[in-house]
Amino acid sequence: MLLFYQPEMQNSSIGKLHFLNEEDARHCVKVLRKNVQDKIHVVDGVGGIYECEIVKAHEKKCELKVLSAEQNFQKRNHFLHIAIAPTKNADRIEYFIEKCVEIGVDEITLIQTKHSERKHQKVERLEKIAISAMKQSLKAYLPKINELISIEKFFKNTECDNKFIGHLTQDSIPLKSAINQKSDYLIMIGPEGDFSKEEIEQARNAGFQVVTLGNSRLRTETAGVVACTIINSFF
Question: Which residues does the UniProt record annotate as the domain Ribosomal RNA small subunit methyltransferase E methyltransferase (predicted)?
Answer without folding.
Answer: 79-231
